[in-house]
Design brief:
Layout (H helix, E strand, L loop, with lengths): L8 E4 L3 H8 L8 E5 L5 E2 L1 H11 L7 E6 L2 E2 L1 H12 L5 E7 L7 H4 L4 E3 L18 H10 L5 H17 L6 H15 L4 H18 L1
Parallel strand pairs: 1-6, 1-7, 2-4, 3-5, 4-6
Helix pairs in contact: 2-3, 6-7, 6-8, 7-8
Length: 209
């Protein structure tokens, strides 16, 4: 259970939406703002501009502004630097993200942080890698078409875990494809595209063997 946070802070969490849903009921509705990108998981300059405008709307009581994003664009962070360092009276900024590395050191050094991520036990994938066909891939992708970057990374790791547990031998090229998939997700490639490419690659390699 996440406690009420009174002062400006950075929260490092497993799931941003879950954290918001748990925290928001603890705050007064009329003086709480949630700013996030509704189209992507990245906090961009448009959201930073919105946050700054909101912060300068005068309030006689504390106003809590939540800045949420899996990643934060560099330009957006730079535009927030001054206001985070010297926020207007009664304004509290709470940044919620999945990783410390999503924030610039200049941002990270300005606010105290709480590391609230819980260790998740990785479970192996339910996919049958030895009999992977296009129907399996289609159904799997259909079920996971709206997943987040972190969830996609978990899936890639769960597939690799199954490979290890089933003692499936992979070539160096195949193993490197897993690393490449993680890197693409870190670079904000669309999760569904990365998973599609990985699964089709594995199916194609299986058919060659």
């Amino acid at each position: 259970m996440i406690e009420f946070i009174e002062n400006s802070s950075i929260l490092i969490v497993n799931d941003i939406e879950t954290t918001i849903n748990e925290l928001i009921p603890k705050y007064p509705l009329h003086s709480t703002r949630i700013i996030k990108n509704e189209e992507k998981e990245e906090f961009q300059i448009a959201q930073a501009t919105q946050a700054i405008k909101e912060a300068y709307i005068a309030s006689n009581e504390k106003k809590y502004i939540f800045l949420c994003g899996t990643t934060f664009r560099k330009e957006a962070q730079n535009s927030l630097l001054k206001i985070l360092e010297e926020p207007p009276r009664n304004v509290v900024f709470i940044i919620i993200t999945n990783s410390k590395t999503s924030l610039l050191p200049t941002i990270y050094s300005r606010l105290p942080y709480k590391y609230l991520k819980k260790s998740l036990i990785k479970q192996e994938s339910t996919l049958n890698l030895n009999k992977l066909d296009l129907k399996d891939i289609y159904n799997f992708l259909k079920e996971n078409q709206k997943i987040s970057k972190q969830e996609a990374k978990d899936i890639v790791e769960s597939i690799l875990l199954k490979v290890n547990n089933q003692k499936i031998k992979l070539s160096q090229k195949e193993l490197e494809f897993f690393s490449k998939s993680i890197k693409l997700l870190e670079l904000n490639s669309r999760p569904i595209n990365v998973l599609t490419t990985l699964l089709l690659f594995l199916a194609n390699q299986k058919n060659k063997n």
